């Protein structure tokens, strides 16, 4: 039952950043979320909050906490920082957050440092006019960051963004962290909603919408496009709903009232570029298969082609007798003269935890930051090459450098896949 009655006093609810089995069971039983009133203008007093708590539902609790957080930051200007290479889940949720924040006169800018190279991501942004901007590590130096009072991390916890350290150096505090990946680092944020057992951040945001943080209206074009983006994000992070749980299906059912099916189909029909197909071909030629793991190094890639790596992993995992695929390459950014080893993991094995597998395989740097992590069915890693970056105009040196990194990565992976094997000796 949806309630709209005002509440004069609210219960004190604790903020938690860790999931537990009790909360998971509560969320699985969630059928309807309470409706929070949507302010027509930015509220001026705390008494204008309309709350309808339902038991101890974590989704309802977090919706209430987020609303209170936004009330405390009215009339401010915030940055929403996405991972360097944002996916549909991150892009759609950032847009939803931006629309929610507008109701409290909070102006948000959505930024990322990398590039959109996956054809579906490009189509999503172009066809929906999703307001995301690329800020490189060079261009941010010319920005006036003093006009921002807070930053928000969505679908990441800062470990996959080159921009976060630079923004934090400007003294901008973290207002909110909303993510569905495993906890990566200690979070110092006013609002935290990290639920690793949820399949998509889009599911979390749809629950916010169901709770009344934003009343979607199918007559408003921006709402329809945002709902379409959320549906795409939910679909992509649940492997076309094949890995979806009850709450994901409930979120999809809610979005089905507002999204544009033809627009979503147009996004999904975006064609792969020739360069992506070349990387997939390289992964097929170079792969080794052991114990149902397919491992492939694809050599050097341009920065703009980085998203070909996860697409190659998506393709390799469909091979017969393969349950897990890992594809990696050296990505070169000519603008910043940087090189980084980037890899993606895809798995259909229910007992394999991508987050644990990648962290165990590659470990962490000197500051304690893991080189990678994951979620259900997928993961990724990024290893900066530092001093060894560049020098590729010498083809013999470039070939030798790749062979060393290729052998080292295979050795670390095969220690977990088959500890008896030594890829360097073989």
TrEMBL record:
Q: Signal peptide position in this chain?
A: none
Question: Where is this chain compositionally biased, Low complexity type?
Answer: 8-19
What InterPro entries does this protein's entry cite?
A: DDH_dom (IPR001667), DHH_sf (IPR038763), Oligoribo/pAp-PDE_c-di-AMP_PDE (IPR051319)
Give one Pfam family.
DHH
* Domain spans labelled DDH: 80-233
Where does the record place the region Disordered? 1-24
Record protein name field: Phosphoesterase RecJ domain protein
Organism listed in the record:
Richelia sinica FACHB-800
